[in-house]
Write a structure and sequence with these properties.
Elements (H helix, E strand, L loop, with lengths): L1 E2 L2 E3 L2 E3 L6 E6 L4 E7 L3 H18 L4 H17 L1 H12 L3 H18 L2 H4 L3 E7 L2 E9 L2 E5 L7 H12 L3 E5 L6 H12 L7 E3 L4 H9 L3 E7 L2 H13 L3 E5 L4 E5 L5 H13 L9 E6 L2 H16 L20 H16 L3 E4 L18 E4 L6 H4 L6 E4 L5 H10 L2 E2 L1 E5 L3 H10 L4 E4 L15 E2 L2 E2 L7 H6 L1 E9 L17
Parallel strand pairs: 1-5, 8-9, 8-11, 9-10, 11-12, 13-14, 13-19, 14-17, 16-17, 19-20
Antiparallel strand pairs: 2-3, 4-5, 6-7, 7-23, 12-22, 15-16, 18-21
Length: 499
Amino acid sequence: MKELHHFINGKKVQGQSGHFGNVYNPATGEIQAKVPYASIDEMNMAVVGAVKAQKSWSSINPQKRGRVMMEFVRLLHQNMEPLAEALSREHGKTIPDARGDIQRGLEVVEFCIGAPHLLKGEYTDSAGGGIDMYSMRQPLGVVAGITPFNFPAMIPMWKFAPAIACGNAFILKPSERDPSVPLMLAELMIEAGLPEGVLQVVNGDKVAVDTILNHPEIKAVGFVGSTPIAEYIYTNASKFGKRVQCFGGAKNHMIVMPDADLDQAADALVGSGYGAAGERCMAISVAVPVGESTADKLIAKLIPKIETLKVGPYTAGEDMDFGPLVTKDAQQRVLGLVQSGIDQGADLVVDGRDFQLQGYEDGFFVGPHLFDRVTPDMDIYKEEIFGPVLSSVRAQTYEEALNLTKQNPYGNGTAIFTRDGDTARDFAHSVNIGMVGINVPIPVPLAYHTFGGWKKSGFGDLNQHGPDAFRFYTRTKTVTSRWPSGIKEGAILNFPTIN
């Protein structure tokens, strides 16, 4: 069986703890590799190497750091297919979806090529008599990222690319469920010209996470995952004085108004609800049609589209719509929530519980499900399902639909489908959600804007990628400067002011 490794100080390092986790092929249910879980000593070794490497890396000018990112982009394009295949093999995504995962990370790396402009400080000439003031952005030192299984290429790049472009060294603790792509990315960064030790990839479990949280040399932590873990990491890392940004779960609503193009809305719901088997934090999991007539028509359009979705392994071809869930536990959890929806009175209008794929009976597949007449007290509404399950919650008015979205404890993304500009504008201004789509079902911002949720979907003051990333991974130092004229006037004891 294949044994994976860590990537420390520019080299593959075999695990020494004797503790391993299984990496599955989600399509077959077979164990395809084992991944080492780092000990505290191994984590400390990575941090020591990062501290040493960061000192010289931070002294390299931002333009040269940007050139490393430029070469990394070229290598990502060159290696797109092997990266996508490795990602699909461990996660279960279709190949086109895996390419999209890599591409969205690549776009953030492209943005980071502009580091020289983004790191410019500010300057005020003659702030007072003979006094100049200027500010500079300086790296934090060694920073870390703890990233999830559902985007094993994109989210690591969202974290390490801006951090490294700012002059930091980065410790990446990727998901233990699909760790191969992050290890491949680290090798490509070295090939792009990154000095050894600036990017360390250390696999592990809670031991590795807790070492990151309490290590005094790690100055900042970024995380993406479930809300309970986000809260744990935010609380504990903050306790140790670290800068922290944590992004948690989601329950994304899409309001469908009576004047919406229902064919467009139905296609949007299918794509955003079932793509990647629903394992996206920006997936639409709740449709909110306004009015009984709208709901009836929307459900009628959804049923045939959902029933004809192609579910299978990535090896079956690029026309597959989605693949398996990542683990057996994930499969059983989703099926358990589906059963709770039935037990609590929702109408299961598309039933995927009996989905079977010949030759892949042991895979972690779940067929597509559609619930209608879901109510906010049901578990399938309250919990993030993270599977191919779409729920329809009927609202009688726009105000009811808006309030349903606003009252949900999560605040990652939301969307409205309408032809009315006044309604769309009111929704965008009124809803308390971090990312809003108007006739766009998955409103993930492009790399030069920032990504982040509100409420229990986000903890911390700054978002991922875009300008916020450069603010998060640097701190501002302001200098007030006056050069002596050669005339000694004596000490001034009162508090200085500018006349």
